[in-house]
Design brief:
single chain; MATE_fam
């Protein structure tokens, strides 16, 4: 039986790969009779065109994050520690809203528009606003209530704990202002409009670079708010993004209009059926990072620093994977909505192969020459040794990570996230096991890195197997 299953998987993948090289089918039409480029344009150029604006702006957001860290670093160790305590919680909310529920919104809107159901797509937009208000409110209540205990458990004490609580209360007090534009941007991407979200995000980065130092450091006569100023700046940027995107989607020229619709259970289901499972995957990714960080912390400060610098390279890969991932959600979802399952699977495969090839080349480069990255951030031999060890182990599996994430995003578009979720569980289990064994003194740090890398390979294999045997045409 296993041999037969393996043969079927190989046959299916070979067939998909062959179809990916075939000419595109005849152009499909939307209701107006005009050819929809999402349904007929050459796939790789289309995916690149949809991905590049998102990738570019997310890289700019990374620049803003680094700049805020620099501004806070001038306030002293307590301020740096306070910001560091809040970062994992903010990262969790960002991943849940963008990659989790946001993926569900993009997928549902793309499927509706692919099927020519404009009114349903606009109803889904209104439902996403309702979800954003509820989710943002729940995040705000949970973090404000549990924040002091959480940050204390993470090691916060004295002045650093008090500053973390103040920063967190301001930041998450504006969670609804963060969630609404995030999900509306996801809806626009699902409709194939990547320009408007990119411009709004770019505007937010520009405003953030201006007002963050003013509020944090007290420039231009403003009161010096310290790390809390970073929270105020982020809330103000979210509010500005909300005003901009609502104005855009209420305008007559918007393809996807924001307006009231009756609330329907099936429309909530169309979003959350993908979004809730994707949220679990996003949460496990965040917890995996926390587990490996904790494992590094079990050794010494040099180990934490070395791992932190090396893993920062992986964080810079996120914009690439997310940008191409959201492009895959849009194309796959639109094709599924239009009933073109063959093109949907072809798009998923082309996207996965392209992104995996791109990141594998980079991964092999840093595996063979880890000093090219590490030497820019550290000179301490112990720090360099740990970071270079991590890159030698993890660099060669960058392509496997890309395959798993690319097919995960494609699965969102097809409303098929079960196998990618199973792969995420396996990766999380490997990371958690590595951390537990390190704490028990039964595993070296290098062996822990190898276990995490093995989890990435197994996760990619499970995702590919699920894609190969999946039936995207079944409702």
């Amino acid at each position: 039986m296993p041999a037969k299953g393996g043969h079927l998987m190989t046959t299916s993948l070979t067939a998909d790969a062959a179809r990916a090289l075939e000419p595109a089918p005849l152009p499909a039409k939307v209701n107006s009779g005009v050819a929809n480029p999402l349904l007929h344009a050459p796939l790789l150029p289309l995916l690149i065109r949809l991905a590049v604006p998102t990738v570019a702006v997310m890289l700019m957001q990374t620049v803003l994050s680094v700049a805020e860290t620099y501004f806070v670093s001038g306030l002293g160790v307590d301020a740096i520690a306070a910001a560091s305590l809040v970062v994992p919680v903010m990262l969790l909310m960002t991943m849940v809203s963008n990659g989790g529920v946001g993926g569900g919104v993009s997928s549902a809107v793309a499927r509706a528009l692919g099927g020519g159901r404009q009114d349903e797509a606009e109803s889904l937009v209104w439902h996403s606003v309702v979800i954003a208000i509820i989710a943002g409110g729940l995040f705000a209540l949970a973090v404000i209530a549990a924040g002091p205990m959480l940050y204390r458990e993470l090691g916060g004490t004295g002045a650093s704990l008090q500053q973390a609580i103040r920063y967190s209360d301001i930041l998450f007090g504006g969670a609804v202002l963060f969630w609404i534009p995030t999900l509306l941007q996801s809806a626009l991407r699902g409709a194939g409009n990547v320009r408007t979200p990119a411009l709004i995000m770019l505007g937010g980065v520009g405003v953030g670079l201006i007002i963050s130092p003013v509020l944090i450091l007290g420039w231009l006569g403003f009161p010096r708010m310290g790390v809390a100023g970073a929270g105020v700046a982020q809330v103000l940027c979210s509010a500005g993004s909300l005003v901009a995107i609502v104005a855009s989607m209420r305008s007559a020229g918007s393809r996807l209009r924001l307006r009231r619709h009756p609330l329907r259970r099936d429309h909530f289901g169309a979003i959350l059926g993908v979004g809730l499972l994707s949220t679990l995957n996003a949460a496990m990714t965040t917890l995996s990072i926390a587990a490996i960080t904790a494992a590094a912390g079990a050794f010494n400060v040099s180990t934490i620093a070395g791992y932190g610098i090396a893993s920062r390279l992986e964080m810079l890969l996120v914009p690439v994977m997310f940008g191409f991932g959201t492009a895959a959600v849009t194309v796959v979802g639109t094709c599924i909505g239009a009933g073109d399952v063959v093109r949907a699977r072809r798009a998923a495969l082309v996207n996965a192969l392209f992104v995996a090839g791109l990141l594998e080349v980079l991964g092999l480069g840093v595996a063979f020459f880890p000093g090219l990255w590490m030497s820019h951030f550290a000179s301490d031999p112990d720090v360099l040794a740990v970071g270079e060890q991590y890159l030698r182990v993890m660099g060669p599996v960058f392509g496997f990570i890309a395959v798993a994430l690319s097919l995960y995003f494609a699965g969102q578009g097809a409303r098929r996230v079960g196998w990618p979720l199973a792969a995420g569980v396996l990766r999380f289990a490997c990371a958690l096991s590595a951390a537990a064994l390190v704490f028990a003194g039964r595993l070296s740090l290098e062996s822990a890195f190898l276990l995490v890398a093995g989890g990435a390979i197994v996760g990619a294999a499970v995702t590919v197997w699920g894609f190969a045997r999946g039936d995207w045409g079944r409702r």
